[in-house]
Amino acid sequence: LIEYVMLAGVNDTLEDAERLVGLLDEVECKVNLLVFNSFDGSPFVPSSLQVVKAFRAAVVAKGVVCTIRNSRGDDEMAACGQLGFNVKKQKQPQPQQQ
Questions:
Q1: Tens of pLDDT along 46-84?
Q2: Under a CB-based contact definition with an 8 Å cutoff, are residues 82 and 73 in contact?
Q3: Strand runs (DSSP E) across the chain, as ranges?
Q4: What is the rounded distance in angstroms from the CA atom of residue 45 to the CA atom of residue 37?
Q5: How far apart are CA 50 and CA 55, in angstroms?
Q6: How far apart are CA 9 and CA 69, in angstroms?
Q7: Which of 10, 12, 21, 22 is the most buried (most CB within 10 A)?
Q8: How far apart are CA 34 and CA 38, in angstroms?
Q9: What pTM did the predictor assign?
């Protein structure tokens, strides 16, 4: 199973779909597209549903099983891309005072 996070303007073009299929050419797998859940402080935004569907269609057209996962956990900051952000934010070292 390959989990692929869809980020608007980063990795969601039809050319990106072609590259993904090429990378998986000799790998027997299923691709699960994850729509990124945006949050305050993130430089990324989710791809539109229209773009995600077109991406999926391009992958499927090449014979790769591909699904779009329903979003879960975004209300608890536990969805795709959110959980790690809180951990990293909390672990940032504080400047030392002189």
A1: 999 999 999 999 999 999 999 999 876 555 555 445 455
A2: yes
A3: 2-6, 30-35, 65-69
A4: 7
A5: 9
A6: 20
A7: 12
A8: 12
A9: 0.73
